[in-house]
């Protein structure tokens, strides 16, 4: 979310309010509540943790507001009534958000320090090209992206042409990204990088790749 540092917290508050009203929850995870409507049997309510913000009576009242009289509810964490309502509605979107404050060259150093210390925030100046490298690092982190380099046998890795993958991608995903038939011809792969115990390590299709790993694929 790109924000104007000269406008303080007003712009951020307005945008967050708009997104909240349409069901987008920023930098929050989905409440760990099991909820399943039933055809009969009334309310079955349980919790695996002590609840300080919701009770069985309150849950029942909320369900009645939504014309739900028979359901299974299991709280696996201490959630608020609003979070329980989000689970009932079921169409909320939970996503990470990075607040990027631009034009920090136009505000005081004290204000820059205050904004930079806020959670999920980065301060930059596009005009003066300040802190853009750090912004790029944080974007990779929030988008959960990794880059993987390929290597041909007997040659050096090609560090100018990386394959961009989601964090958690396996060797099989890399094969599909290179060519759709490569996985069926796969014999083994040699991997250099932080995902291995030693370099190079011979791995199979299920091996999970990490950022800036180098891979050499050997076909049958």
TrEMBL record:
CDD domains: DRG (cd01896), TGS_DRG2 (cd17231). It comes from Pundamilia nyererei. Pfam families: MMR_HSR1_Xtn, TGS. Gene3D superfamilies: 3.10.20.30, 6.10.140.1070. Keywords: GTP-binding, Nucleotide-binding. Residues 144-219 form the TGS domain. Residues 1-144 form the OBG-type G domain. This is Developmentally regulated GTP binding protein 2. It comes from the Eukaryota. PROSITE patterns: G_OBG, TGS. PANTHER family: DEVELOPMENTALLY-REGULATED GTP-BINDING PROTEIN 2. One of its GO terms (molecular function) is GTP binding.
């Amino acid at each position: 979310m790109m924000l104007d540092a000269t406008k303080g917290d007003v712009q951020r508050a307005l945008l967050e309010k708009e997104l909240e009203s349409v069901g987008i929850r920023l930098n929050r995870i989905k409440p760990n509540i099991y909820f399943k409507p039933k055809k009969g049997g009334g309310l079955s309510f349980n919790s695996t943790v002590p609840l300080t913000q919701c009770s069985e009576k309150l849950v029942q009242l909320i369900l009645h507001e939504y014309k739900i009289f028979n359901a299974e509810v299991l709280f696996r964490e201490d959630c608020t009534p609003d979070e329980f309502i989000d689970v009932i509605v079921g169409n909320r979107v939970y996503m990470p958000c990075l607040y990027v404050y631009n034009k920090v060259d136009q505000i005081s150093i004290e204000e820059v320090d205050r904004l930079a210390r806020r959670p999920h925030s980065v301060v930059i100046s596009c005009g003066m090209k300040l802190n853009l490298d750090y912004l790029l690092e944080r974007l990779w982190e929030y988008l959960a992206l990794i880059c993987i380099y390929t290597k041909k046998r007997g040659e050096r890795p090609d560090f100018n042409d990386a394959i961009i993958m989601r964090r958690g991608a396996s060797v099989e995903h890399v094969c599909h990204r290179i060519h759709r038939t490569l996985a069926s011809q796969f014999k083994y792969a040699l991997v250099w990088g932080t995902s291995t115990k030693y370099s190079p390590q011979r791995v199979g299709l299920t091996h999970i790749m990490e950022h800036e790993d180098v891979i050499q694929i050997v076909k049958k």
